[in-house]
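Quiz preparation item.
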């Protein structure tokens, strides 16, 4: 209810301004729309996710050059890393985009039909929301014909004794620290751990990675995960199979007490980065009060049209997607946008071939089935691996560790999956995503087109050519 005691009613309420912000275009001009955002306009990817991390990764890749250029006969040195300059350049670009996005929605005549609430939304009934403004003013109830949940997820902090008493960082805060630490300990062995370990170690920080399983990036195809773990062990102090028992303040920094294959041990560092996954925000939205079901993982349940179990309520992105990837959130936003505008002719989301990349070093990219998944699902496959060292451009780089692996159906030659670890992996995998999406089989893809020589995609060409199809 507003101050005048009237409950504001909207045609559409969008909760979250990450991917949710891309829903509105001129076709919604005649709709009465509310957007609710409790945090920084623009959401995770722009402010604390994909965009700033990759800007740091690019700087880190440059800083890492002296580490591998000498063996090519080029002696370079790293004269310094101006952390404050790197950080301020990155956020000097990002922060104005977030502020500009908010100004556009709140002040531009294009958005005369849009009301932006800076506050927290939670359901109190069917398509009924209580908004608690960030400025401390009185809560307000709004209702809507349609609601889109685009409220993402949040960092998960594991329940480890003492962890809340030490000044730990997460991906939300680590990119803005005032100065580089001398030593960083990273808890977790997934995407965020792999990317930040690369960034900080390239900048000269001593990095320790603590993982509870026996390999880093263990959801990757096993060959990729194994290779990455071996390389990480050469670069960082990697503690695998470790249980973290306790965290404590120590000597101005933090001490972790671990238990692992060699018994009890400790790790000391100046900063702790917790990178142990994310939790979808449906619980904080009290979605159950809006008749919206969640899965055991906490994700809001959606059908192929991105409809939740409540009438008139859609969801997209991290709040409902187990992938937790921006390109998936973007795709789902397009689906929801279409379905809002054309309810009589809805389209389904396409989650058949969702790729991902890890922007660490070496870079990693993957799409489709791993060998382990194929085996688990009883799917017949053949596989082929080609090394970067086995193509001309790989010789130029003296690459000795990268490879591309492809899986195909032995009968139909349809590509089932691809996994690349090595330079430019996220770029090299794109033609395979295209082939899988449009049904181009491995034989036709390999033989039916030119491959520029000596280009890096030859690593993919050769992996395809070498697939051991039955005669
Ligand atoms: C460090 C990091 C790096 C990443 N790098 C990549 C990458 O390289 N590539 C990639 O594909 N993905 C990457 N991701 C994942 C990507 O950022 C997310 O998948 C994507 O941002 C999800 O978008 P979304 O719109 O679902 O949610 P978000 O962008 O998180 O938006 C949700 C918004 O809802 C708001 N909100 C939440 N609850 C409420 C509430 N109750 N009331 C009002 N507002 C609310 C939040 O404040 C937030 O602004 C990365 C993530 C992280 C953390
Ligand atoms: N390049 C990209 O696309 C990119 C980059 C960063 C993040 N992301 C997205 O953000 C999400 C979150 O990233 P993340 O790295 O935090 O999650 P993740 O799921 O990739 O990795 C979490 C890691 O933490 C470990 N872990 C969980 N609980 C633990 C505990 N109690 N103690 C020790 N270790 C524990 C897990 O074993 C795993 O290794 C990912 O799902 C990913 O989709 C994507």
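Solution:
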């Amino acid at each position: 209810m507003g101050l005048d005691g009237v409950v504001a009613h909207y045609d559409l309420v969008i909760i979250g301004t990450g991917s949710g912000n891309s829903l509105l275009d001129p076709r919604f001009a005649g709709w009465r729309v509310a957007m609710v955002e409790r945090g920084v306009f623009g959401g995770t990817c722009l402010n604390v996710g994909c965009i700033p991390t990759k800007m740091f990764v690019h700087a880190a890749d440059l800083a890492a050059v002296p580490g591998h250029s000498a063996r090519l006969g080029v002696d370079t040195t790293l004269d310094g890393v101006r952390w404050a300059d790197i950080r301020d350049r990155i956020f000097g670009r990002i922060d104005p985009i977030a502020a500009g996005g908010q100004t556009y929605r709140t002040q531009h005549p294009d958005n005369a039909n849009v009301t932006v609430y800076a506050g927290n939304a939670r359901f109190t009934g069917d398509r009924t929301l209580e908004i608690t403004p960030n400025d401390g003013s009185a809560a307000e109830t709004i209702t809507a014909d349609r609601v889109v949940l685009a409220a993402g997820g949040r960092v998960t902090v594991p329940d480890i004794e003492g962890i809340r008493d030490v000044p730990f960082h997460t991906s939300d805060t680590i990119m803005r620290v005032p100065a580089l630490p001398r030593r960083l300990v990273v808890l977790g062995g997934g995407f965020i751990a792999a990317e930040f370990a690369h960034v900080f170690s390239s900048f000269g920080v001593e990095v320790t990675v603590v993982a509870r399983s026996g390999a880093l990036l263990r959801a990757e195809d096993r060959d990729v995960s194994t290779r990455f773990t071996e390389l990480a062990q050469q670069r960082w102090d990697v503690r695998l199979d470790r249980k973290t028992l306790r965290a404590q303040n120590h000597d101005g920094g933090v001490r972790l007490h671990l238990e692992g294959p060699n018994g009890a041990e400790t790790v000391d560092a100046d900063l702790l980065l917790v990178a142990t996954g994310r939790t979808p925000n449906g619980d904080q939205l009290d979605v159950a009060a809006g008749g919206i079901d969640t899965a055991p993982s906490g994700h809001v349940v959606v059908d192929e049209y991105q409809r939740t179990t409540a009438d008139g309520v859609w969801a997209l992105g991290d709040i409902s997607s187990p992938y937790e990837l921006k390109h998936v959130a973007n795709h789902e936003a397009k689906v929801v946008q279409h379905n809002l505008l054309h309810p009589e002719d809805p389209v389904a989301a396409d989650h058949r071939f969702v790729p991902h990349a890890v922007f660490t070093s070496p870079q990693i990219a993957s799409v489709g089935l791993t060998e382990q998944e194929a085996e688990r699902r009883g799917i017949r496959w053949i596989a082929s691996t080609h090394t970067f060292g086995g193509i001309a451009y790989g010789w130029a780089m003296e690459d000795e560790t990268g490879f591309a692996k492809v899986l195909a159906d032995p009968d139909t030659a349809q590509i089932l999956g691809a996994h690349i670890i090595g330079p430019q992996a996220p770029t090299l995998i794109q033609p395979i995503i295209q082939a899988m999406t449009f049904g181009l089989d491995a034989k036709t893809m390999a033989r039916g087109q030119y491959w520029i020589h000596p280009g890096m995609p030859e690593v993919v060409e050769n992996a395809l050519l070498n697939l051991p199809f039955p005669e």
